[in-house]
Amino acid sequence: MSALSTVVVVTWRGRDHIKACLDALAAQKSPHRTIVVDNASDDGTAELISGHEVVRLPRNRGYAGGLAAVLDRVDTPYVAWLNDDAAPDRSWLAELESALEADPLAAAATSSILLLDGSTQSVGVALTADGHGRDLVLAGREVFGFCGGAALLRTDVLRSVGGVPASFFCYYEDTDTAWRLRLAGHRVISVGPARVRHRHGASTRPGSVLFHRWNERNRLLMLLRCAPAGVAATQLARFLAITVLLPFREDVPDAANFRPGLRARVLGEVVLRLPATLVQRVRITTEVPRRRVWQDWAGR
Q1: pLDDT tens digit string along 234-278?
Q2: Which residues of 136-157 are buried (b: 16+ CB within 10 A; e: fewer)?
Q3: 110 and 216 assigned to the same domain
Q4: CATH of the domain at 97
Q5: Angle at which helices 229-245 and 209-226 pack, to 10 degrees?
Q6: 162's torsion region: left (phi>0), alpha (psi -120 to 50) or beta?
Q7: Are residues 105 and 192 both part of a single domain?
Q8: What would the pLDDT profile of 209-239 be if each residue is shown by its tens digit?
Q9: What are phi and psi of 11, to 5 degrees?
Q10: Angle 209-226/260-283 helices, nearest 10 degrees?
Q11: pTM score > 0.70 for this model?
C-alpha cells in the first residue's frame, strides 16, 4: 500500500525524547514517510536519528522554519506536523487520514494531545475575542484551528495558501495557517480518537522570555496578516498602550510578557517586519471575507 502521508518531525537538541517519538511512528498502522528536520542539534541527536530520512539544517530555524524547509520535498497527499516530544498512539495517523478522506471540505485535522498524566492539553485551537489562539480541551467536530504539535493537513491546500510562515520561528505558525485555510474557504476538524502523548515543554520552555517574545510578536504579525484591518490595528494599539502604561501601574503581573523591555522589543520587531507583513496580507487568498471569519469564530 502506498503512503498517503509524510510525517515531518522537527527537532533541536532532542536527544532525550525523540527516540520515543520515532519509535511510535515506526509502529503506526498506516504506512507513511517520515522526514526528520534537525535544526543543527549539537547534543548527540544527529547520531540517534541517523537511520532515518534526515534533513539537517545549517542553523536553528525553529519549528516553523523547519517545517517550511521541507514542504517542497513532500510528495504525498497529506503532510503531518508532529513535535519531537510527542508519541502518537498506533492508530493516530490512520484516524487522521480517515477523517480527512471522509470530509473533503476539511483541509486540516487536529489530534487529541494528552499530557503524560493523561489530562488533555489540546483537541484544537479557539480564537479568543482579542485574537489569541487558545487550546481547547473540549470541542465538537469542527474547530477554528489545529494544534501544530500533532496535526494532518492536505499538502496541496497548505501550499496553495502560502505554506508555513517560516519567519515566525516558533509559535502561532499553526493558528496563522488555520486563519489562511479558513480565509480560503476550508474547514478544520478535531479527531478525538487520534491520540498523542506529549512531554509538554521538553523542546521549549513555556513561560520563558523567548516563549513570551515569540508568542506576543507572532500573534500581532498573524493578526496583521490575516485579521480584519480594524481588529489588527486595535490589537496593535492596545499592545502599545499597555506597554507605555506599565511603568505607571502597581498591579503588574509577574510574567515575562509584562516586562516593558520585552514588549518594546516585540514592538520593534513588528515595526521592522510591517512592510513585508502588509505585502503578505495582500497576497493571502480571501474567498471568505476576513470579517466573516472573525465574526464566526472570535470569542467562541
Answers
A1: 999 999 999 999 999 988 888 889 999 999 999 999 999 999 999
A2: beebeeebbbbbbbbbbbbbeb
A3: no
A4: 3.90.550.10
A5: 150
A6: left
A7: yes
A8: 999 999 999 999 999 999 999 999 999 999 9
A9: -130, 150
A10: 30
A11: yes
